C-alpha cells in the first residue's frame, strides 16, 4: 500500500478506495428488543430478485476532509442479456463525477471484480489521463474502508420492511447521505483499515 500512497502524494492526487454492494427487499437481520417469550417477527411480503446496487468511493487527501461519493443502480428484476449490477460504463461515470467533484487526479484502489479488470474497463481507464488504478490483493476486504460503509448501511437497515424497490432506494439514499455529511465517520472507516495514508 506504500506504493499507492507515494504515487498519490507524488501526483498531488486523491487516494480513492472503491467497492460495490447490493441490497434486496428482504431486510438484513439485526438484534432488537422484545418482550420476554415473544420473539419479534418482521413480515416480508416482497420477494423476487429486485435489488438496489450501490458503488461507492471513499476519497482522502492530506489537508482535505475525506469524501464519500456514491452512485445507485436499480435492478427491477430479470431481463435477458442485461447485467444486474454496475457495468464498466457505470463505473466510468462514477469516476468522472468524482474527478469533477474532487477537482484533481485520482489514484484508485479496488478489488478484482471481473468488471474492474475487463478489457473494456482497461480501455476506459487508459482514456482518462488523470486516473491511476491499483488492484487490492485477493480476499483483502479489511484493507478497503468502503467495506465499513456497507456494514454501517446494513446495520441501519436491519429489520426494516421495504414493500417496494422505490422505498428501499429512498432508505439507502438517506442513509448514505447521512454518512456523506459525517466526515468523522468516514475518517473512522479509513482508520479501521490501519493503513498509513500520511504522505512520507
Describe what you observe in this structure.
The protein is an alpha/beta fold. The chain has one domain: Nucleotidyltransferase, domain 5 (2-Layer Sandwich), CATH 3.30.420. Helix content is 36%, strand content 20%. The chain has 6 helices and 5 strands, in the order αβββαβαβααα. It has helices spanning 2-11, 88-102, 119-126, 146-157, 165-180, 183-192, and strands spanning 14-24, 51-60, 67-75, 106-110, 131-135. The protein has a 5-stranded mixed beta sheet, with helices on both faces. Strand 4, helix 3 and strand 5 (131-135) form a beta-alpha-beta unit. Helix 4 (146-157) packs across helix 5. The longest helix has 16 residues, at 165-180. It starts with a helix and ends in an 8-residue tail after the last helix. The mean pLDDT is 83. It comes from Streptomyces olivochromogenes. Residues 15-163 form the Tc1-like transposase DDE domain. Pfam families: DDE_3. This is Endonuclease. InterPro entries: RNaseH_sf (IPR036397), Tc1-like_DDE_dom (IPR038717).
Strand order of the largest sheet: 3-2-1-4-5
Proportion in β-strands = 15-25%
What radius of gyration results from the CA coordinates? 18 Å
Shape verdict: globular
In short:
With 200 residues, the protein is α/β, with parallel strands linked by helices. The protein contains 6 helices and 5 strands.
Throw out a few tags for this protein.
single chain; 200 residues; alpha/beta; Nucleotidyltransferase, domain 5
Helix/strand layout:
Elements: H1 2-11, E1 14-24, E2 51-60, E3 67-75, H2 88-102, E4 106-110, H3 119-126, E5 131-135, H4 146-157, H5 165-180, H6 183-192
Parallel strand pairs: 1-4, 4-5
Antiparallel strand pairs: 1-2, 2-3
Amino acid at each position: 500500500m506504500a506504493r499507492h500512497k507515494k504515487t498519490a502524494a507524488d501526483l498531488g492526487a486523491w487516494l480513492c478506495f472503491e467497492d460495490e454492494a447490493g441490497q434486496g427487499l428482504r431486510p438484513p437481520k439485526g438484534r432488537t428488543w422484545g418482550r420476554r417469550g415473544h420473539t419479534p417477527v418482521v413480515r416480508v411480503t416482497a420477494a423476487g430478485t429486485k435489488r438496489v446496487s450501490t458503488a461507492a468511493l471513499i476519497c482522502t487527501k492530506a489537508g482535505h476532509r475525506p469524501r464519500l461519493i456514491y452512485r445507485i443502480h436499480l435492478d427491477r428484476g430479470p431481463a435477458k442479456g442485461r447485467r444486474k449490477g454496475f457495468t464498466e460504463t457505470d463505473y466510468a461515470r462514477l469516476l468522472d463525477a468524482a474527478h469533477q467533484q474532487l477537482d484533481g487526479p485520482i489514484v484508485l484502489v479496488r478489488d478484482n471484480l471481473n468488471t474492474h479488470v475487463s478489457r473494456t474497463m482497461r480501455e476506459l481507464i487508459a482514456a482518462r489521463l488523470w486516473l491511476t488504478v491499483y488492484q487490492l490483493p485477493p480476499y483483502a476486504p479489511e484493507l478497503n474502508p468502503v467495506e465499513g460503509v456497507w456494514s454501517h448501511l446494513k446495520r441501519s437497515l436491519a429489520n426494516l420492511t421495504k414493500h417496494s424497490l422505490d422505498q428501499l432506494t429512498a432508505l439507502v439514499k438517506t442513509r448514505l447521505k447521512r454518512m456523506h455529511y459525517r466526515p468523522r465517520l468516514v475518517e473512522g472507516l479509513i482508520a479501521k483499515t490501519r493503513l498509513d495514508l500520511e504522505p512520507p
